[in-house]
Amino acid sequence: MQQKILIEVDEVFRKFDQNIGREQEIPGVFYNAGANVINQLIFGYRFDEEKQEELKKLKALMEFQETAFTTFKVQVQFFAPIVGRMLPGKSVEELLAEFTVDFYKFFDRQIEEHRSRIDFDSEENLDYAEAYLKEQKKKESEGDMELFSDRQLSNMCFDLWVAGLSTTHTTLSWIIAYVLNHPEVQKKVHEELDEVIGSDRLISTGDKNNLPFMNAVINESQRCANIVPLNQIHCVSKDTMINGVLVKKGTGIIPQISTVLLDETTFPDPYEFNPDRFIDEHGKLKKVEELCAFSVGKRQCLGEGLARMEMFLFISNFFNRYQVTPGSSGPPSLEKETMFNATPRKISAILTKRYL
Q1: Which residues sit in the known binding site for heme?
Q2: Confidence band (pLDDT; 50, 70, 90) for 28?
Q3: Closest by Cα among 213, 211, 221, 227 to 180
Q4: Which domains does the chain have, with CATH numbers?
Q5: pTM of this structure
Q6: Which of 50, 36, 31 is nearest to 3 (CA)?
Q7: What residues are designated binding site?
Q8: pLDDT (tens digit, 9 = 90+) per residue, 203-257?
Q9: Of the candidates 17, 10, 75, 7, the residue with the CA atom closest to the CA atom of residue 41
Q10: What is the pLDDT of residue 103?
């Protein structure tokens, strides 16, 4: 997987280099790269020049989802379903149907194409869809198809695509936004990169343990950005007492990760961006259990490993290659635009190559 991500790192460089020394938008380039990574994982191909129209359609669907579900009616319906349905406008169910239908057409087409060309006798799996379909055929021969239907595969592809793309892309944008607002942090990042890497070679995961401050910047950006301000809704499986209050079985609950990420007992001055809080007295990266940006327990994000790899490879290589300065309007705003994810506002910057 690392090699696939590094291919996208090179592609990101190619696009940024086209406007080197000029003001340019940052997040969109990372968005396309993230889409390529997740689609290679699921379906085994990236969106090259011939498939850009396909990517534009999927991107438009993602943008529709990010805005449509923030309407007043939808927000009320999430927390008070009966009241929400009485308000004018499209319901959650109608918006979901509108959003998912074209996405599922894309998934269904990919699944059929995979099925038509798979070598079911081969033990090698080229992507997630191929591995699933081979297991599906095995279960079919055993008379057990309950958990391996095509619909289930489409549902899983949907979860991987939507959750795996928007959160990683948003976090990458926040890292750059915070660093642009703290030039002293970029200076320290470059000093570490010069000492450890010292060239324009591609940084790999093998370098990760030798770049503690780079990792600290990623951690602190995740903590401050808190990109999922309202976690997924769950329900209590049995009557539970919490601090003397009875929470009855079936009650809807929303875990508030922000209360942990902004706990001043663990993180003094929690609203200050300070990567050094993740560095110990020996200059090593400090493990802080309260950094729970991917949630905790059985509902912890399954894509954490891939997301962490993407963030490290994209951001470490980005800052190793470029000196980044704010655009004409100055450092980007750190005010959040809250949708499903808390996204930063427009980020424009001027990139200068550090190695010629």
Answers
A1: 301
A2: confident
A3: 221
A4: 2-353 (1.10.630.10)
A5: 0.87
A6: 36
A7: 301
A8: 999 999 999 999 999 999 999 998 877 677 778 899 999 889 999 998 888 778 8
A9: 7
A10: 82
